[in-house]
Amino acid sequence: MKKQIAIIMFISMLGLAACSGESNEGEGSGEGSAQEESVQESTESFDGSVEHVHGMGYVDADTLAYAAHSGIKLHKGGEWLQSIHHKNDYMGFNVVDNGFYTSGHPGEGSDLPNPVGLQKGKVMEEGLSALAFEGESDFHAMGVGARNHAVYVLNEHANSEMEQGLYRSLDDGESWEKIAAENSGEKVFQIAVHPDDENRVALATASGIYISEDGGETFNRISEEGQGSGLHFTEDRLYYGLYTGTPSLSVYKWEDQSKEEIGLPEMNEDAVMYIAKNPEKNDTFAIFTIKGNSYTTSDNGESWKQIIDQGQTK
After folding, report:
1. CB of 309 within 8 A of CB of 268?
2. Which of 14, 172, 200, 222 sits most deeply, having the most CB atoms within 10 A of its CB?
3. Are the beta carbons of 29 and 60 closer than 8 angstroms?
4. What percent of the chain has pLDDT over 70?
5. Is the dihedral of CA 29, 232, 52, 246 positive or negative?
6. pLDDT at 139 > cutoff 60
7. Which of 100, 105, 130 shows the shortest CA–CA distance to 22?
8. Using one digit for the tens of pLDDT, what is the confidence trace for 248-302?
9. Residue 72 domain boundaries
10. CATH number of the domain bearing residue 235
11. Residue 32 confidence (pLDDT)
12. Burial class, 171, CB count within 10 angstroms (exposed 0-12 / middle 13-18 / buried 19+)
């Protein structure tokens, strides 16, 4: 019980953000030599610590992006790189089919407002497109559909258009609708949105994993009671993490509402924080944990390779 409370408190202090997102399943951002040229021009080598991660996702089949405290870090082909453009403290980071959505705070030397509000950009390109609430809001819990780009946020502090609560926008932040979120659990940590169905949304909360199929008006719990995290949608499945005294990773299948547990690497008082599914390789995905560890698997959890060890790249 003490271990469970410690994990929950640790998650709360980190301000567990959206993934799916983060981590949502997306498509590649280019092909062949043009993509390689874009990567070379937009990145530099990186060897250091990946700290305060607030989202992750596959930019393409070979490139995994982490939104860290000092900018976007990339794991590509076994090597570590960092974006030369996005050296900001991004939160609510969600990779989508044509880039990413984010919130957060500007980095040193940036001319972005603080907080940045809701922004959209591309990892390999300079600049962001401001969508809403610049200088007003920082959305830690935010989910964006990978192809429909439906945005769901937890607004923790009232701004010029929103009270506190859960909201969604289906037009890139031009208008916002407050959702009822009945039976949505205790304390929302993460939000994930289905890549195609804008009304299908999941919440990771202090009491478990909840799903809605009516745009967030009503929710049902699909997991055991426990600390939820690590949400990631594919077309027909929802991946999620749960901590009930021990960590677990599961997949929920929409067709028959069945659940299957996936093997995890050995963890010592740790738990899954984010999940990112590879858009092109079916059995390949990555996890990031509460203690700052990250692992990848290419055989659906049968074996794992560690690429970050307590914040340090490997």
Report:
1. no
2. 200
3. yes
4. 87
5. negative
6. yes
7. 100
8. 999 999 999 999 999 999 999 999 999 999 999 989 999 999 999 999 999 999 9
9. 2-313
10. 2.120.10.60
11. 45
12. exposed
Number of domains observed in the structure of the chain: 1
Residues 48-53 have a mean pLDDT of 93
pLDDT at residue 231, rounded to an integer: 98
Contacts of 22 (CB under 8 A, 6+ apart): 55, 56, 57, 93, 94, 95, 192, 232, 274, 275, 276
* pLDDT of the residue at 158: 96
From 169, 238, 244, select the one nearest 202 (Cα to Cα): 238
Phi-psi region of 36 (alpha: psi -120 to 50; beta: other; left: phi over 0): alpha
- Alpha-carbon gap, residue 190 to 202, rounded angstroms: 8
Query: 3-state class of 311 per DSSP?
Result: coil
Give the residue carrying structure tokens 């960590």. Answer: 247
pLDDT at 41: 82
How far is 54 from 51, CA to CA, in rounded Å? 9
In the structure encoding, which two tokens stand for residue 102, read together? 């984010």
Instruction: Give the residue among 100, 93, 118 at the shortest CA–CA distance from 19.
Output: 93
**Distance (Å, whole) CA 271 – CA 308:** 15
Residues found in the chain: 314
Residue 25 amino acid letter: E
Q: Kindly report the pTM of this predicted structure.
A: 0.90
